[in-house]
Each structure stands twice: as C-alpha cells, then as structure tokens.
C-alpha cells in the first residue's frame, strides 16, 4: 500500500484517484470545489477542500510524506505549475502532472515533474494505433484479475534463459519485452533470451502472480 | 490504406489525425475554425473548414465513403451527438466518438457510435494502473518499428499448439492473449495452447511481422 495525493478533481483526477483507491492504496484528494470534494466521500481515503497553491495547506496535510503526488489540473496552468513545484520541493519522491499543451508540459518538467501526462493527446495516439483492434489489451488492463506490468528479475533468474526459467509454466508470466541496462529494448524475447541482473521485464499475467515481483520504488 | 475522417480539431482530434496520417492512411479533417484547419496543412491528406452538423456539407465531402469517422468534439455535446448520428446514418461503417461524461457516452452509443472514448477518464485509469512502470509498453506502442496488435490466425495454425506453430521462432510474434469465439479470454497462453479458427490473438512483435496477419475490417 502506497500513499497518493491527487490534487484537482477533473475527469482525469477523479478516475485516477478512484482507481488507485480500488487497487488498495491510501488516497488523499484535494480540490478547492466543495461539491466535488463531497462527491468523493467513500470513494477515497480522505477528501479535503483546500487551495493547493497555499504552501501551508500542503504542509498541514503532511503532503511531503506521500509517495506520489498527482497534479491533475489542466486549464489553470499557473496553479498546476506552482503546485507541481511545491510538492516536489517538499520532498515527494514521484510527481505526475497533467499538461494542457506541449509548452505547459516542458515547464512542468523544468519545475520538477517526474512524468507529464497529456490525456487528450496521448489518447489520440493510442486510439489511432489501436483502431482496428478489439481492445483485448484494454480488457486485460482494465480487468481486476490480470495485468500487464513491469517487474525486476529475482536472483535465481540471473543469467538463465526464459526456457530454463520456465517463466510461463512455473510463474504464469508471459514476457512481452525486456529493457537492458543500456536502455536497449528487446521486444518479444524468444525462449533463448538470457535474463540479466539489470533487466526490467514487461510481463502479462494474473495479478497474484505478478504481485510477487512488483517493482518497489 | 484506409480512409478516415476526423471531425473536430481539439488536442485529441489533432493527435489522432496526425498519427493516422503518419501510419500511411488517407485522412480528412473537418473543423469550423479556419485557423485550426490551416494549421493542419501538410500534416493530413485534406483539411476542410466546415460546420459538420450540416448534412449537405458531409454529403458533398463524400463522408459516406469513408471507412472510419472519428467525432472528436467534447464540450459541444449537441453537435457531437448530431454529427455522430449523421455519419452513422450515411453509412460509415465504424464511428468513434469522444464523450465528455458518462451520460454523453450513453447517448453517443444510442445514436450509433461503435466506440466511445473518454480521454481524461480512460487515461486516469491507465495512469493509475501503470504508475510504477517505466512505460516499456508505451515505448513499444509509440515506437515506429514495434507494435502490440490483434490478428486472426491463418489456416495452417488451426488446431495446433503455439509450440507446434513455433510462433516466436518462425513468425517473430509473442502471443499475449487469445479471445475465443465464446468471448472467453486466455491471458498469457502457454506453449500448449491450441489455436482455434475463431480466435483473436493479441500479439507483440515487429510491425513488418505483424502486418502480414493484420485484421481486415
Ligand atoms: N489551486 C487549486 N487548488 C485545488 N484545486 C484546484 C486548484 N486549481 C484548480 N483546482 C481544481 O482542479 C480541478 C480540475 O481543474 P481544471 O478544470 O483546470 O481541469 P481540466 O483539465 O479542465 O479537467 P476537465 O477537463 O476534466 O474539466 C477543478 O475541479 C478545480 O477546482
Ligand atoms: N459543428 C462543428 N463542426 C466542425 N467543427 C466543430 C463543430 N463543433 C465543434 N467543432 C470543433 O471541434 C473542436 C473541438 O471541440 P471542443 O473544444 O468541444 O473539444 P474539446 O474536447 O474541448 O477539445 P480540447 O479539450 O482539446 O480543446 C474545436 O476546434 C471546434 O472548433
Ligand atoms: Ca488489470
Ligand atoms: Ca477539452
Ligand atoms: Ca479536458
Ligand atoms: Ca508501435
């Protein structure tokens, strides 16, 4: 269980916060709109009405102790930039911010965002690339039992091939891709692919099978 | 090469249209804003300034002959609903519409949309589920060389196991999931999985390897 704070309850912030909570995490949401805050009661751990550009508010809520902050404000760029900077300065390890356009995105990275999301643009690319698919992968991604995730190999896999490890039979995992230490990406590695210590593996399988290998931050 | 018409040039419509064009498709974009239309010159096949709620406009542009229409209007629900209905009535086979909220989505399905996308909400779920990943799959999805796609099995695969087919060695494809005729989904099918005639297979591999098996509409 990780601690998340989601600032801004637009469609993006709401669905993100609800999903994180459903996944078993501790989720605090903040918005300056009282009605929106009330509508989240029971759907997240805590919902607070506040202006997040106020540093004292963030301090009194203990934001610095959270593992991840998501700044889900799009239209009000000024606030989104200020809040992103504040939470990063306070020491939140991982900050995700939503951008309205490319320029906004660049500023967010400059002030400390670890990841910037542009939902409309990103979904445009995604839908284009998957237009003729029947959304099998979305079904997996949105399913409660299965996931596609990234894991770190355990010691007993080091320097063995996928065949030797018997990844599918013993671990129920299908390796879709591997990222080497030098950032090289091996897509669809064959049975003779040798797992290295520094690898990150993208796998598909049951949540209970994946959980055992989850990447810890 | 397919023919696409994208109506509405917000962030979603723009990135969708550009990506479809980059993928080698024929793309017509329509928006009532002259400046936006001009900014698409050279980035798509045709860009036309017009009000798409006008049935005569859609007829004169030959919209009924397009394979896919994407109605990428969010805020103006009335227009988005009218246009979705019009293009479907005209005979466009596959209509994707963008919704602003759940109610809007339901109306769009009722008037004929084949798929409804809610970029902010969908990305909220997606980001929540992938929060600790290093985005290996996004790298694949956004790469020009590799894809994750859905394919139909060819005749010589019918009733054979993945091991017998030697899917990875001979075809360079990694089968991530299979959807049976009865809609059952087998995630991460093992080497002994028997491919059936009615299966849809989600695979990962090089674009050139996948292209051979692409699902035709
Ligand atoms: N300084 C702030 N402190 C707290 N909440 C804020 C602050 N500024 C904006 N918000 C909240 O952020 C939420 C989302 O903001 P905004 O409307 O800009 O996002 P959006 O990208 O337009 O989302 P959507 O398109 O879903 O409406 C709003 O509910 C707003 O009340
Ligand atoms: N009837 C219409 N005919 C043609 N274009 C239209 C029509 N109605 C709206 N549009 C265009 O659709 C585009 C997107 O509309 P809208 O602003 O509602 O979408 P949006 O979801 O808010 O997108 P974004 O958030 O990226 O601004 C606008 O550029 C607008 O000019
Ligand atoms: Ca899942
Ligand atoms: Ca919008
Ligand atoms: Ca928006
Ligand atoms: Ca790709």
From TrEMBL, chains A, B:
Residue ranges occupied by any RCK C-terminal domain in the UniProt entry: 134-217
Entry coiled-coil feature ranges: none
Cross-referenced PROSITE patterns: RCK_C, RCK_N
GO MF assignments: monoatomic cation transmembrane transporter activity
One Gene Ontology term from the biological process aspect of the record: potassium ion transport
Pfam families attached to this UniProt entry: TrkA_C, TrkA_N
Domain of life assignment: Bacteria
All residue ranges annotated as the RCK N-terminal domain in the record: 1-118
PANTHER family, sorted: KTR SYSTEM POTASSIUM UPTAKE PROTEIN C (PTHR43833:SF7), POTASSIUM CHANNEL PROTEIN 2-RELATED-RELATED (PTHR43833)
Name recorded for this polypeptide: K+ transport systems, NAD-binding component
């Amino acid at each position: 269980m990780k601690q998340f704070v989601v600032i801004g309850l637009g469609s993006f912030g709401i669905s993100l916060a609800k999903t994180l909570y459903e996944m078993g995490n501790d989720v605090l949401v903040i918005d300056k709109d009282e009605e929106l805050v009330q509508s989240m009661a029971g759907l997240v751990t805590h919902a607070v009405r506040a202006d997040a550009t106020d540093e004292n508010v963030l301090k009194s809520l203990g934001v610095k102790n959270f593992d991840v902050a998501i700044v889900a404000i799009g239209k009000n760029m000024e606030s989104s930039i200020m809040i992103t900077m504040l939470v990063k300065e306070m020491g939140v390890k991982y900050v995700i911010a939503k951008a309205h356009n490319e320029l906004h995105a660049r500023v967010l990275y400059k002030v400390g965002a670890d990841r910037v999301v542009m939902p409309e643009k990103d979904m445009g690319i995604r839908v284009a690339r998957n237009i003729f698919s029947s959304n099998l992968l979305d079904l997996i991604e949105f399913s409660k039992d299965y996931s596609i995730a990234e894991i770190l190999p355990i010691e007993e896999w080091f320097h063995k091939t996928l065949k030797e490890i018997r990844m599918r039979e013993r671990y129920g995992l299908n390796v879709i891709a591997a990222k080497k230490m030098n950032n090289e990406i091996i897509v669809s590695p064959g049975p003779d692919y040798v797992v290295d210590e520094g690898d990150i593996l993208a796998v598909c399988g049951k949540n209970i099978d994946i959980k055992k290998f989850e990447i810890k931050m």
